[in-house]
Structures are given as structure tokens and as C-alpha cells.
Amino acid sequence: MPFELVERICQEVITSSFPFKIDTIRMSENGEAILNRDFLKIARYIRKQLPHTRIDLMSNFLSFDQELSDVLVRERLV
Q1: Cα angle at 67 between 1 and 60, to 5 degrees?
Q2: Measured over all CA atoms, what is the biggest interatomic distance in the chain, rounded to whole angstroms?
């Protein structure tokens, strides 16, 4: 999903007129979410805009490395 679409969705969700409470966002990209070139940018944006929302990541972890794992944990992105 392009970052611009994530921005639009988040902006709609955080408006007071949005009729539902968002408890969880599941990041998956019809496959491996971290292969999206904007993965960290998207995760950081969601965390900033929806700080109390749980972010789930569906992954097979084959593309993870130590650096990415450290960032995800340190910044509480998932």
C-alpha cells in the first residue's frame, strides 16, 4: 500500500466523525509487509497518528535482520 493511502486512511480514522474505535491495525501486504519500501515510514506514521492502537505484523520473518528488529522493538512499532 502506498504511503499516501496510509496517510489518507489515518486522517479519516482520527477524525471525530469516524464511527468506529480502531483497536488494532494489521500490517500485511498480500504477502510480506516488510518488502514494502515504505514499511518503516508507514509503521512510524501509524504509531504517531494512532499511538494507542495495537499494530500487528504478519510476517514469515525471512527478510528480517538485526537492525530492523532493533528498530521495531526500540520504537515500539509492533
Answers
A1: 55
A2: 41
Q: Tell me which H or E stretch contains 27.
A: strand 24-27
Burial of 49 (0-12, 13-18, 19+ CB in 10 A): middle
pLDDT at position 62, please?
86
pLDDT of residue 60: 85
How much is the CA Rg of the chain, to the nearest whole Å? 13
Cα 41 to Cα 49: distance, rounded to the nearest angstrom: 12
Q: For position 16, what pLDDT does the model report?
A: 81
Query: Block means of pLDDT (10 residues each) for the chain, length 78 residues?
Result: 93 88 87 89 96 91 90 93
Q: Of the candidates 76, 18, 27, 28, which has an alpha carbon nearest to the alpha carbon of residue 52?
A: 76
Type and span of the H or E element at 57: strand 54-57
